[in-house]
Amino acid sequence: KIIKRNKVTGYLMWYVIFSYPFWVQSGLLRMEAETSWTHYPYNYITYVPEADPYSEPSDDETKDQTFSMDTLLPDDLLERILSFLPIASIFRAGTVCKRWNEIVSSRRFLWNFSSNNNNSASQRPWYFMFTTTDEPSGYAYDPVIKKWYTFDLPCIETSNWFVASSCGLVCFMDNDCRNKIYVSNPITKQWRRLIEPPGHRSTDYTALSTSMNRAKQSYSVSVVKSKQVQGNFFQWELSIHLYSSETMTWTTSLTDVLTGWRGGDESVIIDNVLYFLIYSTGGNSDHRHGLIASNLSSTSSLMSSFIPMPCSLTCGRLMNLKERLVVVGGIGKHDRPDIIKGIGIWCLKGGREWQEMARMPQRYFQGFGELDDVFASSGSDDVVYIQSYGSPALLMFDMKLKCWKWSQKCPVSKKFPLQLFTGFSFEPRLEIAP
């Protein structure tokens, strides 16, 4: 940190020694969390510049000269250091000075930052929790530094809107006319409104999903609409509409009529296959749910790709975890299938077979208090989030480590008996733009 002139040789010598604690000690960047930091891959760096020619030192030259660390580090090295910060710290780094702001705002830094953290645990999916039933206000949970942030979402107007996310991109659709569809990056606050999708406006059930292609920087959005055939409760007209950001247009890929089944509000896109849940209308199945796997490149009949669920579920939640279809479902009692007795997690193998990954231990299941037959659940990467509608408690399951743990306590508490909570997970990324 200090440059000194050697009194014997007269050479200017300076040393830069830094590791993670430097940032805390220098006061340039501070966080409130205790166990939040990712250690840098450097223990120390020593640099000796070219020496000045020998000359007799004067009194002024023998005095210690102090320089700012910021002026000594070249841009590429400083950029490299900042790229290993947690994503929440990047915004604080941008407020340190103009130079740091220019670095963390550059396109090259955004891509390098995401590349450095793409396959590491330093950037894990966040969870946004809606804390009211009317307004879209809430908090976002960062599992890396175990902290909740006051967080504002772009575009969304009420908490009951449809939400889907993929690789840092979050899609919102209104719950009234279902013609307002936005795609956004909730971290950078960039957003875009899509043109209105085709098909019926007044549908009975709608499922929204999105898929982001990082390599091409393109995305697709799917809307599955389900409407009852007039005068026939057992027949439902179902249509699939797809939006491509490359063509900026909607196409209706398939329209079919289901007998004994209807569409719902759960869908996900994995490797150009659209998976969505269908619900029994009675009389033709022992299970309340079924799964449709519709290849977006074909137009075959929907029921030809029907996949039975692993067991009778009170509700099912679909998610894409590293290009794997994962279902989180409520397990019903044997004599009362509409009453939940536990929660299980399954992964689809080979296109039609289910592998049970975990069942929630009873102590965690009881930790939710009163748990209805439905609950909120979403995830990405290797993390599954599960939340009760009746409380702000948030439980996480790590698919890789096979372990359950509660999040830090949310800063909001239940203010009245009928207050509901829900939420969704998303990947915090800086380089994704709608």
Characterise the protein shown here.
The chain is mostly beta strands. The protein has 7 helices and 27 strands. The strands form 7 sheets. A 4-stranded antiparallel beta sheet has the order 6-5-4-27, with no helix packed on it. Strands 7-8-9-10 form a 4-stranded antiparallel beta sheet, with no helix packed on it. It is globular. Residues 1-55 have low confidence and may be disordered.
Task: Compose a concise summary of this entry.
The chain contains 7 helices and 27 strands. It is mainly beta and 434 residues long. The strands form 7 sheets. Strands 6-5-4-27 form a 4-stranded antiparallel β-sheet, with no helix packed on it. A 4-stranded antiparallel β-sheet has the order 7-8-9-10, with no helix packed on it. A 4-stranded antiparallel β-sheet has the order 11-12-13-14, with no helix packed on it.
Topology:
Elements: E1 2-5, E2 12-13, H1 20-26, E3 65-66, H2 69-72, H3 75-82, H4 87-93, H5 98-105, H6 107-117, E4 126-130, E5 138-142, E6 147-151, E7 162-166, E8 169-173, E9 181-185, E10 190-193, E11 205-213, E12 218-228, E13 235-244, E14 249-259, E15 261-270, E16 273-280, E17 289-295, E18 306-308, E19 313-320, E20 325-332, E21 340-349, E22 353-359, H7 362-367, E23 376-380, E24 383-387, E25 394-398, E26 403-406, E27 422-426
Antiparallel strand pairs: 1-2, 1-3, 4-5, 4-27, 5-6, 7-8, 8-9, 9-10, 11-12, 12-13, 13-14, 15-16, 16-17, 17-18, 19-20, 20-21, 21-22, 23-24, 24-25, 25-26
